[in-house]
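pasting for ref. prot 1 ->
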Amino acid sequence: MFNGFSHSVMGASHEKTGLVCQDSSAFKIGNGYAIAVVADGHGSKKHFRSHLGSKFAVEATIEAIDRFYEEREDLEANLPVNYKLIIKNIEKQIISNWNIRIEKHLEENPVTAEEKSKFKPEEFEAIPPESYYGSTLVAAVAGDGYTFGLQIGDGSLVAIFEDGKAVMPMEYNESAPANVTASICNSNAASMFSSFYAPNKRLIALFGSTDGLYTSFGSEFDFLDYHSIITSQLINLESFKQIIINNLTKRSHYGTEDDISLSCIYDEDLLNEKIGLLNKQVEDNKQRAAQRKAELLKKQVT
């Protein structure tokens, strides 16, 4: 049986400047599947409604994936041979859903004089309306013996399969040209997604996070070890919730001091079955981390 958790916290840099939290997150447990999704509004000058854009991105994603799962048997029968096409169609549906939401919001809430006041008239006219709401997006889906995910812009996906090791299943794909932010608001957004599909793998837990979490760590090793630790803590979800909220709030004061969102979905039965393995993985990770630290100190001395 799947379960999940999601939460977003404001970064220290936004607290200092008075900028509202630009992140959004959610999870959903469906009939035989689960969804984890996070989105990070860009927050820069021309993306002045991106806190809403990230919210709409999360909603649009859950709506799109739910729609594809209305015919779950057909979807799961076709995934092994047509996963690239299916995921691409989900991405297109997400973009369509998102654009419908922002068009409706803009129609009901025209740009105010105060929002325009930050721009020269010609500067404002050059901004495409969808850019007001620009956001990244990271989403992951778990089913019976398979997982898949998609991403546009920065952020991370971490999976822990039945071997207990934390991995980042998304291959790095620099699909955006230099100096162009990969965003759901771009006119060519459909070509800027990265995705993965992992068949025939039993999943313990799957996490999506905005880039504020990754940048709060000193290395990718530490980032992955963190996910091993919090996966082991999912065994008691209620106590986990307060612990992770406190930790995310603390971490939002490290690195780039950015907003942080974390969303996770996990298999309760497999988690209980593998908790001994997970606890051992956590201990092994601590030993490897200590060894890396010792080797680094040795290099600095010599």
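and prot 2 ->
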Amino acid sequence: MTITVLDGGMGQELIARTGVTSDLWSLWALMERPEVVREVHDDFFAAGADVATANTYCCLPDRLESKGHGEKLESLTRLACDLARAARDAHGSGLVAGSLGPQGFSYQADKVPPVDQAAEVYARVAGMMGDVDLYILETMASLEQVEGGLVGTDGLGKPVWVAMTVDDEDGTKLRSGEAVVDVLPLIERHGAAAVLLNCSRPEAVGQGIAQLKGAGLPVGGYANGFVSIAAEFNDTLATVDMLETRKDLTPEMYLGHAKAWAEDGATLIGGCCEVGPEHIRALAGAFKGATA
């Protein structure tokens, strides 16, 4: 199968371009600098990405309400998707993925709401996204988080990709401690279109992808460029400047990891936090037209 090149990390790219770090994460740019969000999408497409992930990762009631912006949920969600679609249309090709991030907090499997409660929120937010090409459940840290997302997107008529975050020291396990492979029955039951690993060290992503060989559906990976996820990075007051960026993850090194993922069967390959347009350019240069 042909390898699809995903885009890179929106949030860290916004910080790099504006110097602004906020506990609203990338949502602040939708409120104050939407033109920079569009610019990032444009640059990822220009670098060779086939997919634009809409800047909706934090467009969730719990994130906005905790900051006093609950009434902006629908307008920000629609704006983020409109910006991604406009960039895709200007580029002339590509897919737009509506991102559905983790409720509770990123990487914190113990903060997940019950499945039925999470599902109601995901269904509501997905309904605000309009004509995206697919939904991607991002940075799911536990099977319960995955299930909430899958139940919420059941029956909405679009493909659903499941992207899970794994333990940085043992990529065969989710951050909850559950085995990566234990997601496969859930994936099959709900008919998800792809399973990916994201927002973990590339070394750990590689370990997890090796576990998913023969999953029977497309597998992918898009890693982050952080040294690790700090223990104190655990609530909605946390800002990403608490996380240390790797200095060694050049585009060439990242490509080396990505090639190993492809050898293990990955066909959806991109980047997450701290993976920018030059990393994506390296992936596109190696994979455009390549087969796994």
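The radius of gyration is 17 Å.
The domain at 4-287 is CATH 3.20.20.330 (TIM Barrel).
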